[in-house]
Amino acid sequence: MRIVRIAIVGILVGMLAACSTGPRVYTDVDPVADFSRYHSFAFFESAGKSTEKYGTLMGQRLEDAISSALEARGYQVDTRHPDILVNYHIEEIEKQRVQPTTFHGGYYGYRNGMYVGWPGYVEPGYVDTYTEGTITIDLVDRRSDQMIWEGTAVGRVTNDMRNAPDQSVRNAIAAIFGKYPYVAGSNVLVVPVAQ
User: Is the predicted pLDDT of residue 56 greater than 90, yes or no?
Assistant: First the structure.
């Protein structure tokens, strides 16, 4: 009996792990960009800022995570003459998902010559209010001022994420750069690095 319980717990944990998904990630690339020319990067001075004239804690987390992801692919920081300039945007939007009340009607079943009525049931509706967060990273060719690659992660912001912002940012940036198929100085597409 104990083995059965352990097996059931294992199956449930596996199902929960399979259901947990990260953010939805979208990317776009300039098809004529020559990625073999890019070896270094720096951030736009105004990266991530809208009205603030100062860096924020979230901005610093993002820059650290983006730098780590690019350095893992062989790019070097060069604040004087970078090949790529990096910008990022973050946005949070309050959203609602409404599920209306639904009525599931009854039916009559036939068994052994008897008709049995089943009245049906009502499934109550609900309103789910949540915060959706978006992080977008732009890579721009410094010489031509043309965007060469863009990655966006969109997902639900949870209390756990707010309580562990460092890990949440690292996870989101890893998901985005998991779809970045280049390494420094190469035009050859490589299998994106799993992080």
Answer: no
Contact (Cβ atoms closer than 8 angstroms) between residue 103 and residue 63: no
DSSP 56: -
Q: How far is CA 182 from CA 33, 39, 64, 73, 76, in A?
A: 12, 11, 19, 7, 14
Rounded Cα distance, 48 and 138, in Å: 11
Enter the tokens of residue 121. Answer: 């049931």
- Asked if residue 83 has pLDDT above 90, the reply is yes
Distances in Å between the alpha carbon of 2 and those of 10, 14, 16, 82?
Answer: 12, 18, 21, 61
φ/ψ of 50, rounded to 5, equals -115, -70
| Widest pairwise Cα distance in the chain | 88
Contact 114, 146 (CB under 8 A): no
CA dihedral 38, 71, 63, 178 (to 10 degrees): 90
* 168/157 Cα distance (integer angstroms): 9
pTM above 0.85, yes or no: no
Cα dihedral across residues 182, 86, 143, 70: positive or negative: negative
